[in-house]
Design a protein that fits this description.
Layout lengths: L8 E10 L5 E10 L10 E3 L6 E7 L4 E9 L10 E5 L3 E6 L2 E7 L5 E9 L5 E9 L2 E6 L2 E2 L2 E2 L4 E2 L2 E2 L7 E6 L11 E9 L5 H8 L1
Antiparallel strand pairs: 1-2, 3-17, 4-16, 5-10, 5-17, 6-7, 6-16, 7-8, 8-9, 9-13, 10-11, 11-12, 11-15, 13-14
Length: 206
């Protein structure tokens, strides 16, 4: 679900329960929220000082799923470059023109870029996932499957008949080109060699 957090402090809530006979009872609940001083799950922060990271050699083929929680500090209004969350010679996921975009490169070295209907929400955590099962590609934004446009109108699924087979470095947050650096935070990156189901994606979003 959407990532929200209570500020440290004391909160009061009244909980009421009613049994099958109509009798009810109420109880007051006090919740103390304290600062988390032992957090070890730290997101990757990317800005003009802290750049992208490489994750070794990676060959992209077959069924697959790409997932990440992202928080953009940029409106991504540029139209001539994609700010990359994932960047590989066969696939990228990022944002441009204020929308999320995903693309695969086929065996003929042609890119198929899908513009996702959901717009970039600045400074808000968003869960993104892309799956490819056989030749069928789907995109998920938070708790729903997203509509995408490859230039012929919006659709829920597109066909990617092939993906070029290339062994190359998988980059997270950019690829060395300043115009393609994703500004913000990236967390809980997951790359699977299977196409996860919508219920699987939903569990990762919860």
């Amino acid at each position: 679900m959407a990532r929200t957090a209570l500020a440290p402090g004391t909160y009061y809530e009244t909980v009421t329960a009613t049994d099958g006979n109509g009798a009810s009872s109420a109880i007051g609940v006090t919740v103390n929220v304290v600062p988390d001083s032992s957090e070890t799950d730290t997101a990757l922060n990317i800005d003009a000082t802290n750049g992208f990271v490489g994750n070794g050699w990676f060959a992209n083929s077959g069924d697959q799923t790409w997932e990440a929680w992202v928080r953009s500090t940029d409106t991504c209004t540029q139209t001539n470059a994609v700010k990359k969350i994932f960047s590989h010679t066969t696939f990228y996921l990022g944002c441009k023109n204020s929308r999320w975009v995903a693309a695969f490169q086929n065996s003929s070295s042609t890119w198929s870029e899908a513009v996702i209907l959901d717009r970039v929400s600045v400074n808000e955590w968003t869960h993104l996932a892309v799956t490819r099962s056989g030749t069928s590609v789907k995109v998920y934004v938070n708790n729903h499957q997203a509509w995408v446009d490859l230039g012929a109108g919006f659709t829920l699924t597109w066909t990617q008949s092939s993906v070029i087979s290339t062994l190359n470095t998988l980059y997270i947050g950019g690829n060395g080109l300043p115009a393609e650096t994703f500004y913000g935070q990236i967390d809980e990156v997951k790359v699977w060699n299977s196409a996860r189901s919508q219920s699987d994606i939903y569990r990762d979003w919860e």
